[in-house]
Design goal:
The chain has 350 residues and is of the alpha/beta class. It is built from 13 helices and eight strands. It has a single domain, classed as TIM Barrel (Alpha-Beta Barrel).
Length: 350
Amino acid sequence: MNVLNAHRHGLPARSILLAATALALVLALGGVLVAQSAAGQSGAGSSRTPPPTARAASTYLTGIGDEQTEMFGNPLWQQLHTKIVRYIAPYDAVAHSYSLDRAIVWIRAAEAHHQKILVAFYHSEYNPTRMPSVALYQRDVQRFVRLFPNVTEYQAWDESNRGYIPHLLSSPSATLDAQYYQALRRVCRRCTVVGLDVLDQANIGPTLQYIAEFKREVYRLRTTMPTVWGLHDYSDINRFESWRTRDIAAVLPGQVWLTETGGLVPFGGAFPNVRGSGLRRAARAIRFMFAVAASNPRVKRLYIYDWTGGTRSTRFDAGLMDARFRPRAGYLEVCRHLRAPRCTARAASD
């Protein structure tokens, strides 16, 4: 779930950031046993509710988030006929040639396939533990926005409530994130700026508090309250629960975009992939994901993360493809759900 995953870019020097991402998600999602106890702390009564029921009035667009251009040339992606994609870019991408070149190639490829692009800004690849001042953030994202005039949908900070991982990465406070949101609105008044981009977490109490603090700062700044909000509901989907998504959506006034979601193939010890069990579990989670999205009429978009899978040693892997771009069982679930004309590919067993 991190644009900086070193195994995807062939950058050993940045492999520490992959570890940071995995560690951060470990802390956020917690173990299976922790999740069960946390359910009693927030939304306790709803964690045992029946599976979500799709509503006829609920319609949403489905797309994929990824940072690799291989996706666009792959016939398996092309047959899905999706219209939206999501890309995570360092907020200072324009200041660094490597980050900028990667963004240019990816965005051009997406535009060539007539995709509506949502860009989520993220920490610097070069100073991941240092949060930029609002002035620096505004300067850098303004340069990015001007460079890509056809991109009109943005998020101020990817998974902003992830937290601080000492010596590895930082995330903004809710107050600072609201100031980033205001700055991004200032530099792109024609854009849709998604308010917040939060991870549900096993215990959603801190997430709800973060949202409340963000709203208070937006009011204090006298800027426009968001009408579109971003949510990553990995904890819910991969535990086959829906109460977190429902309870968080209830405090977000407007549309809800599930800007990252999907099935975890392996993720640390909590979600292992032993003899293909993770592949089967991830496919079931993806099927459940669609049911959760359809059960809430305020969910208007769903971005599956991600296309590019990892290897056996990858700690966090939610890819629809394996490391050799062979389809997994999760891809077949997506293909069938979207009613693609040819869903006859054979799933790789890894």
